[in-house]
Write a structure and sequence with these properties.
This protein is an alpha/beta fold. The chain is 46% helix and 17% strand. Helix 6 links the parallel strand 5 and strand 6. Helix 5 packs parallel to helix 6 and helix 13 packs parallel to helix 15. The two termini are 37 Å apart. The structure holds pyridoxal-5'-phosphate.
Length: 399
Amino acid sequence: MGQIEQRIREIADRARSLQAGDLYFYLQPVEAVDGAHVTIGGRTMLHASSTSYLGLMRHRAIDAAAQAALEHYGTGTHGVRLLAGNTDLHDRLEARVAAFAGRQAAVAYSSGYLANFAAISALIGRGDVVLCDKLNHASIVDGCLLSGARFVRVPHNDIPAIDQALAKVPAGTSALVVVDAVFSMDGDVIDLPALADVCRRRGAWLMVDESHSLGVLGPGGRGIESHFGLAGVIQVKMSSLSKSVPSAGGYIAGSADLVSYLKHASRAFVFSVAMPPASAAASLATLDVIDAEPDRVARLQAHVRRLRAGLRAGGVPVRDDPTPIVPVIAGDDDTTLRMARFMFDRGIFALPILSPAVPPRTSRLRITVTAAHTEQEVDTIAGAVASAWREVIPALAEG
Ligand SMILES: Cc1ncc(COP(=O)(O)O)c(C=O)c1O
């Protein structure tokens, strides 16, 4: 068997064997979802892995804005932004994102993956150095690889290691440091004050992915800089528009010149279709809703504390991070899948995250809460995870 056939066979066989054991949780045919609940196979369950952190899916004003855009512009733009696909809605979204992010300008891409991939590969190239946290999102890693720059993976959230790596960069060589603000599988927060200081001292550019901090951290959900009481320390601010913002897309915010450069030189902007107008309208309306309904951020932050305290009280080891992403690390894939099955059978949808999405032997349930959950629902999720932790793990050890 050739390499290609072997690769295909391995993955297809694994999927088949999980399906046969009723342990396949991917590609669920979702019939309805509102952030706190999801309907699958006619059964409405509590959603314990949603990234709609502010509970804004199906928000009336956001849906109405998307519908009006659909009515006015139709479904697509039949083109790339640079040529014929730009609308006033895209321009208004970018101005609103820039104001929200506290930057001069912003550029929108049709996904967060593309925003990272496009910006990183446009900013650096052969002869440069890029430092990438070991637990950064795949879209950051792919952008670094595509760039052709010397790719240095640094230990997770280890700012002294970044300092040492930057100290070795030869004078005259450009360096870019890229990190997640909140790490998507672990829910911990980058040490921005220390990192910003190192980058400033070493003359490196700093890019931060705010996909899981927008709407989550800081007063008004403004993100990582406001969480730490810092302003303007990040040169390249990125976020997906598919988490707290219930849309599809991504952006880079920064100086006017940076944004102009990306609009003319980043290949995913120049050669790929514009974000659909309805998605742009939904994103634009969402930023207004986040500002108009600040209680949502406060409710989310209270739920985060409640979930983590509830899990700890139930004997589940969790850290005290201020984010709604709580990894419940079971270790191996099989235990994780059985915990997901335990939850599913009790009407709770909790996503298992397996290696290689996370490092080997750290497979986990990725539990999240949103502002749309009630306190009682947060308690139900914490209680079910604690039961799964107590019942599934000892049962496997005995079995
Ligand atoms: C940290 C991070 N960055 C980027 C992305 C990609 O965003 P999108 O889903 O909009 O392509 C994700 C989404 O999974 C993410 O978690």
